[in-house]
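Priority: medium. Attachment 1 of 2:
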């Protein structure tokens, strides 16, 4: 009979067993395997003894069984290694048992690599070690299981022990499809739990915690949460135990006290806030994945809120750190909410009511970070979560009477033809009774009866409609002390009636703007009353004195604005038109007011311009309300009227002769600064509705309305190039960034969406014509034509060119670029009495750059130039003049533009394959280098030769050894013999130009000198020397301060392009000169410690190596080597330097 080993419990499967309450199902299965193994038959034993392998396997299993039983006994005795009175003899027994078990488990794994029961036995031992708090030994056991489990999952050849670090033991690959074997899944889940517990108790240093945090966040590495879908077949109680243990372990791992105790130090060891937060987030996600009933919702959200607050409190007070923390919190909250929404009891967890107050606090705290980050979608999601419990909004009352400029026929007046006193008394009494009703309602008190109150309001309406009241409202300007008794009485009675009328109106407006449940039955009557008040005042204005007109106009507009504002219900589209009609009524009232020509004293007249400004503001407020609820199409009419009224009001305010106080002046300034934003908002609404053409015109109007003077654009354009003026990152004015966006949008829509002609898109034609196009869908009632000065218009055209350069691959951009260049040249044309030579030269350089990519002859003809050389010559002519006109503040850029013009002219000669391209390229390169030398000499007010001498290691040592007087003499005298040596040496023809070194030029450098030159640079790993004075101290700092550049990176790229073309033409000397000039400019721009300086130095040194000027090349390499060793430049440049340096050393 064959012999097999199996659990003795198989023959007693029906006998119930009572496992420990603390043991999981996996512990039970593994313990049964490892502790209750017997031999089934003697016949099997005989066969096993006949086979060495079977005998060895039997012996190993018995040893594992005995060791496991020993550990079980120790566990049952309650002994723990961490106890203060732990017996050493017991510890020795445990260590012996573990050693025996480990040894024989290895034998079993070797004999039966595919037997899962072996790993179940190992897992049982691992569980007992965790119970005994033998953490290091438990981790060793996990390390032996780890490769076996990986072998079971992906089939890799197992190793005796995992080579992974302790954090790597937490990760197991998740095959696709995932395993379905229940026994294997039990082993893996328990392995995760035991290993994490042991790792937590032997917490690694904070640096290793960062590794754990990254591993748990990596999508390619898998821990408990990644295995949840596979663990779904496991018993719920077991899975909850694994997840809760993972939560507890990860939270403890982040505790500074736990880390300090594990590292045996009394000092508190802090974990990086982001690392601790990531670990706590993972722990909370594990807790969120448990089954219902494991944790109460309030406790769960309290923990989430606590972890977030801990991160905020521990985050350093810096913008970058706070931004990173905010992003981490937002991401974590979204992930956590996604997990919670998958729970069966999600309704309880996400209930935002009194039973789940912690979730409400969590959402409130979440809102703070979403608001800071400008995360609209998150805010909307939070809003939906908070509204899960709540009622609908109150119903909207039916719309009452709509105001109209044409009044209905007035009913028969209740006032009879009586004496003036009786008539005025009845009118006054009626108005006072209506005012009393309004006052009672405004205080929240109850009126006697609703019908009586409505009757009183209706009586006031009838009085205001009667023509008799107009006699009193128009007699207010009569003097009280008039000689005529009747006039004096009428003036007195008119004052009383007017004051009663004003009180009635104010209380009605107050009730309308502050509705309550008690005023609901009266809302329609109150609105009708106010409509009648407006009609009454409008009638009074039509035939009254200037003083009365002014007072009634103020009251009427105030009432209309209140009616329009309260009539609008953002959720009811039927209320939009009545609100718009109210503002139309206000416009008709203002149109009827007298103009300034009606009086010699403008201050006596109504401020019509201010009224129009207020009407514009009312339109804009309603439009803003509609825009916020995404009613873009309904907001368009209000925005359009707002923009037109605002433009009209500004034009009137500029022409008015009335005195303006400081407060009113601020209001006009604010309107002027914000008008372009209203046009932009209108354009956005058009874009949202898909009306690109009207959006294009609205964006154009926004540029028209931009406050060029207030923003300082005109002043800054006289001293800054476009690259600095429109640099959003460094610009302190947000309005200029907005202007940049407007120009880019106009250009993009016209070019890529509307496919307009270049003449229509160019801002010169756009800004010089009205924006009211022939399109019938957009009607501008006011023509906002702004005559921009050439400086402002030109800078906008240059910005348009900058944007076109970013989309030059699209159709039509070439033609548009030509048109914009042509318009910019015309704007800066001296023939138009404009003296802006520097800015015109800047556009000419853009023209040269553009022509380099396009056919030259045809485009030159379109730009009215005979050739490219003519363009370069004009740049030279314009910038060589001493009188720069309005560009005097830009004179610092003259040399840069002249150098660029020469380089472009040479490049164009090569591009068109000119027969004399070598001569032209050589001449232009030499002229450019000469200009660079003149530029530096003219701007640097100290001896550059001294700084150049210090940059050599040889001269640096000499400067320390001699006195200042001797050093000074050496600086002056030393170049002379060098020049003599150069003139005396007969160099070959190709090496004639670079003969500027102080040593004799000889293609074959003596070996001993070569070694001397290179000896200091061969040892790259030598100790770092202090930085030389020429690299970082006062000389270079002064040089940087004296030179300014316009787009230096682009300028430097031009030098590099020219050097490459010179190399192709075999003009090696001129190439070296160009690189030397670029190197000096790089040093003046960013200092010696910069990528640009080192890059150019590499190229220049390489050319010297080609020319055989090894000593000069070595000097450049030595200086660059110090910079590379300092670690202050990018890695790419450092690698390039090392490769070139190695090449040069080989040449030496």
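Attachment 2 of 2:
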């Amino acid at each position: 009979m064959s012999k097999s080993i199996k659990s003795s419990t198989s023959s007693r499967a029906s006998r119930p067993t009572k496992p420990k309450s603390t043991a999981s199902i996996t512990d039970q299965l593994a313990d049964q395997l490892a502790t209750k193994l017997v031999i089934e038959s003697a016949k099997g034993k005989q066969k096993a003894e006949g086979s060495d392998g079977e005998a060895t396997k039997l012996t190993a299993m018995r040893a594992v069984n005995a060791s496991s039983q020993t550990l079980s006994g120790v566990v049952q005795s309650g002994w723990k290694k961490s106890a203060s009175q732990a017996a050493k003899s017991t510890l020795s027994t445990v260590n012996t048992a573990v050693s025996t078990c480990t040894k024989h488990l290895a034998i079993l794994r070797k004999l039966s690599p595919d037997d899962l029961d072996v790993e179940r036995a190992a897992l049982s031992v691992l569980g007992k070690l965790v119970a005994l708090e033998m953490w290091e030994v438990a981790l060793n056991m996990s390390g032996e299981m780890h490769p076996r489990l990986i072998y079971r999952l992906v089939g890799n050849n197992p190793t005796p022990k995992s080579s992974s670090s302790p954090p790597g033991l937490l990760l197991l690959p998740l095959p696709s499809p995932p395993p379905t074997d229940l026994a294997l899944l039990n082993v893996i889940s328990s392995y995760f739990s035991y290993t994490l517990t042991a790792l937590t108790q032997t917490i690694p240093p904070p640096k290793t915690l960062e590794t754990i945090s990254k591993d748990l966040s990596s999508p390619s590495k898998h821990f408990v949460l990644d295995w949840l879908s596979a663990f779904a077949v496991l018993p719920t109680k077991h899975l909850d135990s694994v997840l809760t243990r993972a939560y507890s372990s990860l939270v403890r791992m982040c505790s500074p006290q736990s880390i300090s105790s594990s590292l045996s130090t009394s000092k508190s060891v802090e974990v990086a806030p982001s690392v601790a937060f990531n670990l706590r987030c993972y722990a909370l996600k594990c807790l969120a994945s448990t089954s219902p009933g494991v944790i109460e919702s309030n406790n769960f959200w309290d923990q989430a809120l606590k972890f977030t607050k801990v991160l905020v409190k521990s985050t350093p007070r810096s913008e970058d750190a706070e931004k990173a923390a905010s992003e981490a919190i937002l991401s974590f909250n979204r992930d956590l909410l996604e997990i919670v929404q998958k729970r069966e009891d999600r309704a309880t967890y996400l209930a935002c009511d009194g039973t789940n107050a912690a979730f409400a606090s969590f959402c409130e705290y979440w809102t703070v970070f979403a608001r800071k980050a400008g995360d609209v979608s998150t805010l909307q999601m939070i809003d939906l979560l908070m509204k899960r419990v709540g009622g609908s909004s109150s119903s909207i009352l039916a719309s009452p009477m709509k105001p109209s400029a044409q009044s209905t026929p007035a009913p028969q007046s209740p006032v009879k033809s009586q004496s003036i006193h009786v008539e005025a008394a009845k009118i006054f009494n009626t108005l006072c009774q209506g005012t009393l009703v309004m006052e009672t309602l405004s205080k929240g008190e109850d009126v006697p009866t609703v019908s009586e109150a409505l009757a009183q309001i209706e009586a006031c309406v009838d009085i205001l409609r009667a023509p008799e009241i107009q006699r009193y409202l128009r007699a207010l300007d009569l003097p009280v002390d008039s000689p005529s008794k009747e006039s004096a009485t009428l003036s007195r009675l008119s004052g009383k009636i007017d004051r009663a009328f004003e009180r009635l109106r104010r209380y009605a407006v107050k009730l309308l703007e502050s509705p309550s449940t008690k005023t609901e039955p009266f809302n329609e009557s109150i609105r009708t009353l106010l409509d009648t008040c407006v009609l009454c005042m409008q009638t009074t204005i039509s035939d009254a004195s200037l003083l009365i007109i002014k007072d009634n106009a103020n009251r009427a507009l105030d009432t209309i604005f209140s009616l329009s504002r309260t009539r609008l219900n953002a959720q009811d589209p039927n209320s939009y038109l009545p609100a718009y009609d109210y503002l139309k009524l206000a416009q008709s009232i203002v149109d009827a007011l007298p103009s300034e020509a009606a009086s010699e004293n403008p201050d006596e007249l109504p401020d019509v311009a201010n009224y129009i400004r207020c009407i514009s503001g009312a339109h804009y407020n309603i439009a803003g309300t509609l825009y916020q609820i995404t009613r873009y199409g309904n907001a368009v009419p209000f925005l359009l009227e707002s923009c037109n009224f605002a433009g009209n009001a500004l034009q009137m305010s500029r022409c008015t002769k009335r005195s303006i106080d400081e407060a009113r002046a601020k209001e006009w300034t604010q309107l002027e600064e914000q008008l372009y934003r209203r046009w932009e908002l209108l354009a956005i609404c058009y874009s949202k509705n898909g009306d690109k053409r009207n959006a294009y015109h609205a964006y154009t109007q926004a540029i028209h309305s931009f406050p060029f003077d207030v923003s300082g654009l005109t002043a800054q354009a006289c001293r800054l190039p476009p690259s600095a003026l429109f640099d959003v990152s460094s610009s302190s004015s947000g309005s200029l960034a907005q202007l940049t966006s407007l120009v880019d949008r106009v250009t993009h829509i016209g070019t890529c969406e509307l496919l307009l002609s270049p003449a229509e898109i160019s801002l010169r034609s756009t800004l010089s014509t009205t924006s009211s196009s022939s399109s019938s869908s957009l009607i501008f009632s006011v023509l906002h034509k702004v005559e921009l000065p050439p400086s402002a218009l030109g800078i906008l055209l240059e910005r348009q060119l900058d944007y076109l350069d970013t989309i030059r691959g699209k159709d039509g951009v070439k033609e548009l670029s030509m048109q914009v260049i042509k318009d910019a040249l015309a704007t800066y044309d001296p023939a138009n009495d404009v003296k802006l030579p520097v800015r015109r030269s800047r556009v000419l350089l853009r023209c040269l750059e553009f022509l380099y990519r396009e056919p030259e002859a045809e485009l030159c003809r379109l730009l009215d130039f005979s050739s490219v050389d003519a363009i370069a010559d004009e740049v030279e002519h314009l910038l060589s003049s001493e009188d720069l006109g309005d560009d005097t503040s830009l004179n610092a850029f003259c040399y840069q533009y002249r150098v660029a013009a020469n380089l472009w002219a040479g490049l164009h000669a090569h591009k068109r394959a000119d027969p004399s391209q070598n001569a032209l390229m050589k001449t232009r390169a030499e002229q450019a280098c000469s200009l660079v030398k003149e530029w530096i000499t003219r701007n640097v007010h100290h001896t550059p030769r001294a700084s150049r001498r210090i940059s050599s290691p040889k001269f640096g040592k000499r400067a320390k050894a001699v006195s200042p007087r001797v050093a000074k003499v050496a600086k002056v005298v030393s170049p002379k013999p060098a020049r003599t040596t150069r003139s005396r040496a007969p160099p070959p023809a190709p090496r004639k130009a670079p003969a500027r070194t102080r040593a004799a030029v000889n293609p074959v450098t003596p070996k001993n000198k070569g070694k001397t030159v290179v000896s200091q640079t061969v040892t790259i790993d030598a100790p770092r020397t202090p930085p030389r004075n020429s690299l970082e101290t006062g000389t270079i700092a002064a040089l940087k301060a004296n030179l300014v550049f316009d787009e230096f990176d682009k300028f430097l790229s031009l030098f590099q392009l020219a050097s490459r073309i010179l190399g192709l033409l075999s003009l090696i000397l001129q190439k070296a000169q160009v690189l030397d000039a670029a190197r000096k400019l790089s040093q003046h721009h960013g200092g010696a410690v910069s990528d640009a300086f080192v890059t150019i130095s590499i190229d220049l040194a390489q050319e010297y190596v080609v020319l055989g000027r090894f000593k000069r090349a070595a000097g450049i390499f030595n200086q660059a080597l110090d910079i590379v060793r300092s670690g202050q430049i990018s890695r790419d440049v450092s690698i390039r330097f090392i490769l070139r340096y190695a090449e040069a050393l080989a040449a030496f």
